[in-house]
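tool=predict chain=A
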Amino acid sequence: MIQAYLGIDVGSVTTKFVLLDGSDVLMDSLYLPTEGKPIEVVQEGLRQIRRQLPDDAAIRGVATTGSARYLAGIIVGADLIKNEITCHAVGTLQYIPEAQTIIEIGGQDSKIIIIRNGIVTDFGMNTVCAAGTGSFLDHQALRLNMSQEEFAKRALASNEPVHIAGRCAVFAESDMIHKQQMGHRTDDIVYGLCQALVRNYLHNVGAGRDIQAPVVFQGGVAFNQGIMRALQEELKTEVVVAPHHEVMGAIGAALLVHEEIAKTNNASRFNGFDITEARYDISSFKCNACPNLCEIEQISTNGGKVLARWGGRCELWDEKITAN
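tool=predict ok
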């Protein structure tokens, strides 16, 4: 019997699934668009994982991470719910143990993780400005009527990139239009956009942090060779793309739950694949127990049974759920 460990990383743009075997070798991975429907995409991912799971394999542990990790954890019955910073660091060190800096750029947010002697010593996140994230590139590529593959190819062909004011996504687009009207080559404008994203990332997320090599680049944007080129030129050092970089958070989650299960030898709380057919509802209400007036979110299933509540500043509603 193959013991498998499932890691799920639910982000705002994409949701990633990985299966590791008992030796922490990647058995399978899945990369799906979230499309604002985290519950549905988790269910669809589990359907696909179920079809791809070998007949002699059993899920021994499940962990969730990402911006919707708590919601996903409730649905699947996660044995471990962990933050993205820890999961990305653990996943990266599995493949590149000498890594000292991790640059992770996703669709809607970006992160920097500083590692010394295998331990996270500092980190930063950008969840406010789109100009340092993949959505910035998606928007500009759409406006230029080209795919991300063509966008990266055109960036690499640039010899004289134009300077784009990239501190704000809105101003960057305005500046790009101005450069187009002045007659600059599209290749040079595209690479100028790559440089603008990298400058924005380093000025915001990386500001004041000791970026040392080896620098590892991961996240969906790491597919873009134009961003790789801009990073290496700006940092003046080699930048390495991690293996399986697009699912690294899910890999870290699976590694951590394997470690946890091995330590405790507990049976997994995984709810099983039948949850793919369940109906889940999200609702909210205002708590009047104190002047904070917290908005409490709750998830229920199959006719109104409440599974969990969260969002309060205290544990009042968490305790009520536990008591039920």
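The longest helix spans residues 186-204. The chain has three domains: 2-88+249-277, 97-241, 280-323.
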